[in-house]
Write a structure and sequence with these properties.
Blueprint (H helix, E strand, L loop, with lengths): L34 H4 L3 H11 L3 E7 L13 E4 L9 H7 L2 H5 L1 E6 L9 H5 L3 H5 L3 E6 L1 H4 L27 E6 L17 H8 L9 E9 L3 H12 L6 E6 L2 E9 L4 E7 L2 E2 L2 E2 L9 E14 L11 E2 L17 H15 L9 H42 L1 H14 L13
Parallel strand pairs: 3-4, 4-5, 5-6
Antiparallel strand pairs: 1-2, 6-12, 7-8, 7-13, 8-12, 9-12, 10-11
Amino acid sequence: MASDRGTPPMNAIAQLETFSEHEARGKYNDQAGSPLFSILPRELRDLIWAFATAPYEDSEAKFENTAYYYRPGHTARLKTETALLLTCRRVWLEANAFPMLQAEQSFYYYRGAPDGRDPEWMARLTKHNSQNLGELHLFIQMGTIEKLASPTWCLRDYFLTHRPVRGDLQPRIFRLTIRHTDWWSWENDQPLRLEDSWVKALLDAPELRSTPILKLELETLDYKADQLAVIVDRIKKIESAEGASHYVGNYPTMTRFELADTQDTYTWEGPTNIDGRVRHAYEGRAMLNYHVVTLTWNLRFTELPHASVPGLRRASVALSPDQKPLAVDENPGRAEGRLRFWYSAILPRRREPRMTEWTEGIKRHHFMLRFWTQVRWISRRQAELGEAVRRRQFEELCGAALERKWAARWEAERSLLRFVGHRPP
């Protein structure tokens, strides 16, 4: 392949900026002489990019096998090779999202691994990387995850400390793991216990309504497998609540997490001296045999079972189909007169021995202040909703132009994708 001068330098993957093909048009070599681009379709090239940038365990950065965080898939630091992205700009444009899409970002709440992430790392992610966040893996103790059931706590509090921003937490896969050492009183070999309320809160978390796959991984020792089976059967009966989280056309569409038909189960062996100490309950054992069960939920559209989640837009706050927008009177004076009548009818005056008129005036003033605050909020929300409707209508009118644009792009990429059917002009 021919090289490009001025190829953007490859810094930390977490600092990649958005760099679309449209913005780079005419600034890169299209590599027409390379069979990789002139013969292979885009879908096969994507498989090559994915294979070349897949994360793996670094053999030169092994973890101690007695550490709390040592387990299959986490026996060493995870590493991603990005040298492929330095070859030319055409490769960069097609493959720059794959390192983040395939990477597993692990968060540990207590007893974490050296490569664990933290909220400061998440805050440094660019918008491009936030949109391409692959797997978000949370290792957490039982007492900490139970906070999720509290009305004052939400899922994003485990990962982000700044104020909510649309799209700042939308991984492709979210995995939550309760390790053997995360259960209540595991040191004393107490029976397993789990509160259902936080699992329900996890399934209903609005932050995950752009996440196609949710996994819950529960780990214990082999002789507690029967106890875990009872808990797993109970979790399977917990149903996700429906919520209007995406727009399909001009209408908000309901989504919910549905449990997969099969569960994944595997076992592995580890030393008895966890963290370099042998607990009284494990004396006389040569190894500890772990039993792990993974439950998987997939995000589904209740009315569109074959819809794809990542390609749809998140919904803003919208009125339900049976709820009409509140009317705002254009004449403030007339509205104020109606309000005073409503105030007098609903909240009759309380006759007090002193300062009656002054007290009523203060109460009416505070009531009017709250009312006009609500009026301004309603007006602003109506304007936002109207703008969203007009934007969607404009996008629908431009549908034919978008089809031509994407068809030309797929043809240039030698993609196998084609539009089926005909969109009316």
